[in-house]
Each structure stands twice: as structure tokens, then as C-alpha cells.
Design goal:
By secondary structure, the protein is mainly alpha-helical. The chain is built from 14 helices and no strands. The chain has one domain: Ammonium transporter fold (Orthogonal Bundle), CATH 1.10.3430.
């Protein structure tokens, strides 16, 4: 292949594998947070996204995101079923890696983004409704925003930056989670809480590990920006986890393991859009802000009685939103000459563009998600019946159990 750099290619294949690992990590995280009778139901939603989203991505998803342009909103079908992509086709993001690697890398993002939403409506949505939701949400929300932000669409043309998915992944997924919670309503049966904190820790560890591929890989090559994105990822996660731990300790009078893990994930989500555009000092500040603001968002959610079961909105939605806004504040070309200067570097216009983009994406994601759930409800019930919810979705929907009997 002309201009093939084996080092960059190997690095991107590794990063693709790391991002793939994040979806099983998410399944373990969510599986540990729910009660014993709903473990398989929520884990299956993540794993099935790996299969079904791959099918859609191969058929039309990649093309709709990255091929051509229709009105600045969506791509075309010129590369449906990867038509015209050969061994020698270079990636536009970096012509030293094959386009096939870029296709695979972006596919992993498409897999995990809708899976994030499932934590919000755990224990109460039918599997048939989930499959319809997964399909519709990819087409109506995810694919348009990938194209608009990364695929040459209107937001990219306007100068909006999003390094690894503050808008494209976390904000729209978190806002979709909020819309889902408000539509589906509260659980009829109170969940006893995390049935396995070790599973939560395992899932968080896999997510944290995979996030290095998520953020550092978004440079699409190995250079100094890759290094700063890698470092910023860990710095923000660590500061956010400690900030959440301190707040939780003060409120609950005891240091909570789940609190630290939740804060770390909030920091990871928040640094994602800024990882390759800001300094490590800025990443530390972003991490602290993430821990405090996401913690506050979860407390606010609790006061509002929103049944966002696993805090998807408070962690991913709010984290993605403030990450984009802080990118507008802290971005500096000193750490990425291909990026932009933010508000602190005298570029107020960039800050307002980022703010406007995150507000617009939030409205889009909420309206389309809520409307889509309403439409799905006309086709098949979205929410399980009271008796099924009480019995647990593992046995009712899937005829399987995570554990042989309760109490073991």
C-alpha cells in the first residue's frame, strides 16, 4: 500500500481493540449495578449492540457517516457495504493507515454509544423495543452527528471541534437517556442496589483501560498529541474520581467505592472531547469540575425523582456537555497546532461555537429520542408489565438466569 506506516497502522488496530473491549466493560459495569434478576437482560443489550450495530455499520452506517454529504446533515450511500474500499484505499484522517482500519475503529464507537443509554431504563424495557430503539437511534441521532462533527458536515465546516466524542458519544447518549427516563417512567419495583460491586469495579477498569484507545486513538497516528491525549485521559479520570470520593465521603460519612468508580467514569466522559486539545494542567481542572458537577447532577436527578437507574444522564450527558464547554475555554494550539485556541487564549468565537453545538445536539437528541420511543410504543409496548418487572427480566424475557438461585 502506498505510504503505509506499519507503526501507525498497528497502533490503530490496538486502539480499535481497546475500544471494542469497552462495550463488554460497560456490560459488566451495568450488570454489577443492577439487581440479581436483571443482570443478563442489561448485559445482553450491550453485547447485542456489538452484533447488530456491526451489521448496520457494514451495510450503510459507515457510508452515511463518512461518504459524501447531503445538506450538511448526513452522508450518502456511495460506500454502502464498503463498496469501493480496497486494500490500497487510505484513510482521510491519516493517509498512512488503511481506510479499513478507520472503518473498524469508528465502528467500535458506533457500538458503544447507544449501549450507554441502556443504563437509564434498566429493569423495565422489553428486548423487542430495545432492538427497534437501537436501530432507529443509530439512524436518526448517531449517524447524523458523526457526519456533522467528524464526516465533513455542517458543524465541522463551522469549526466545531470534538476530539473523541463529547457531543458525538456522551452528550447525545446522556440526553437520550434523560428522554428515555421521562418517557418510560419509574420502575414499579425498587431495585435493591448493586448486586456485585466487584463486577462494577471490573467493568470500570475495562472502560478506563479501553478509554486510552478511545482518546489517544482519535489522533489516528503516534505523535506527541497522542501522548498528551493519553496522559490527559488518566489525569482527568483520577482527579474526578477523587473529587467524587471526597464529596461522597463528606455526605455519606464513609468513603464509597462505587462513588469513586462513578466519578472516574464521569471524568473520562468529560475529558473525551478535549483530550487532544488541552494541557495536562487543564485536564486536571476539567477532572475536578467533572467530579463536582456530575456529582451535583446526580443529586439533582435524585431530588427530581428521575429514575435514571445508573446515572447515564448525570455522568455521560452532563459530562459530555461540560467537556465540550470546557474545551471551548481551555483549548490551546500550544498542545495541538491543528486544534484551536479557546476562550482563555482570546478566542471567544470558538467558545460560543462549542456551546451552541452542545445545546443544539442536546435538543436534537432529546426530541428524536422521545419521539422515537412514542412511535415504538405504537408498534410494541416499550415498558414491561408490572408482574414481569417484579419477577425479573432475565427469566421473563430471555429464559436464562445469571445465578442458579437467589442468595447464591
Amino acid at each position: 500500500m502506498p505510504n503505509l506506516d506499519t507503526g501507525n497502522t498497528a497502533f490503530m488496530l490496538l486502539c480499535t481493540s481497546l475500544v471494542m473491549l469497552m462495550t463488554p466493560g460497560l456490560a459488566f459495569l451495568y450488570g454489577g449495578l443492577v439487581g440479581r434478576r436483571n443482570v443478563l437482560a442489561i448485559m445482553m443489550q450491550s453485547f447485542v449492540s456489538m452484533g447488530w450495530t456491526t451489521v448496520i455499520w457494514f451495510a450503510v452506517g459507515y457510508s452515511l457517516c463518512f461518504s459524501g454529504d447531503v445538506g450538511g446533515i448526513i452522508g450518502n450511500l456511495d460506500q454502502a457495504f464498503l463498496r469501493g474500499i480496497t486494500l490500497s484505499t487510505p484513510a482521510a484522517a491519516n493517509d498512512t493507515i488503511p481506510l479499513l482500519v478507520f472503518v473498524a475503529y469508528q465502528m467500535m464507537f458506533a457500538i458503544i454509544t447507544p449501549a450507554l443509554i441502556t443504563g437509564a431504563f434498566s429493569n423495565r424495557v422489553t428486548f423487542k423495543a430495545w432492538m427497534l430503539f437501537l436501530t432507529g437511534w443509530l439512524f436518526l441521532v448517531y449517524f447524523p452527528f458523526v457526519h456533522m462533527v467528524w464526516g465533513g458536515g455542517i458543524l465541522q465546516q463551522w469549526g466545531v471541534l470534538d476530539y473523541a466524542g463529547g457531543i458525538v458519544v456522551h452528550n447525545i447518549a446522556g440526553i437520550a437517556a434523560l428522554a428515555s427516563v421521562l418517557y418510560v417512567g419509574r420502575r414499579r419495583v425498587a431495585d435493591p442496589g448493586p448486586h456485585s460491586i466487584p463486577l462494577v469495579a471490573l467493568g470500570t477498569g475495562l472502560l478506563w483501560f479501553g478509554w486510552y484507545g478511545f482518546n489517544a486513538g482519535s489522533q489516528f497516528r503516534v505523535d506527541s498529541v497522542t501522548a498528551v491525549a493519553f496522559l490527559n485521559t488518566d489525569v482527568a479520570a483520577s482527579f474526578a474520581g477523587i473529587a467524587w470520593l471526597v464529596l461522597d465521603w463528606r455526605r455519606e460519612k464513609k468513603p464509597k467505592f462505587v462513588g469513586f468508580l462513578t466519578g472516574a467514569v464521569g471524568g473520562l466522559a468529560t475529558i473525551t472531547p478535549a483530550a487532544g486539545y488541552v494541557s495536562p494542567m487543564s485536564a486536571a481542572i476539567i477532572g475536578i469540575v467533572a467530579g463536582v458537577v456530575c456529582y451535583g447532577a446526580v443529586m439533582f436527578k435524585n431530588r427530581m425523582n428521575w429514575d435514571d437507574a445508573l446515572d447515564v444522564w448525570g455522568v455521560h450527558g452532563v459530562g459530555g456537555m461540560i467537556g465540550i464547554i470546557m474545551l471551548g475555554i481551555f483549548a490551546t494550539k500550544t498542545f495541538n497546532p491543528a486544534g484551536a485556541d479557546g476562550l482563555l487564549a482570546g478566542n471567544a468565537a470558538f467558545f460560543w461555537k462549542e456551546t451552541a453545538a452542545v445545546i443544539g445536539s442536546s435538543v436534537w437528541a432529546f426530541v428524536f429520542t422521545y419521539g422515537m420511543l412514542w412511535l415504538i410504543d405504537r408498534i410494541t409496548p416499550v415498558k414491561v408489565g408490572a408482574a414481569d418487572e417484579a419477577h425479573g427480566l432475565d427469566a421473563i424475557l430471555h429464559g436464562e438466569r445469571a445465578y442458579l438461585e437467589d442468595g447464591i
